[in-house]
Amino acid sequence: MRILASDALIVIDVQNDFCLGGALAVADGDAVIPVIQRIAPLFEHVLLTQDWHTAGHSSFASAHPGRKPFEQVEMSYGVQTLWPDHCVQGSRGAEFHADLKLPQAELVLRKGFRPEIDSYSAFFENDRATATGLATYLRERELSRVFLAGLAYDYCVGFSALDARRLGLPVVIVRDACRGIDLNGSAARMEAEFASAGVEIIDSSELTRDA
Question: Would you say the pTM of this structure is higher than 0.90?
Answer without folding.
Answer: yes
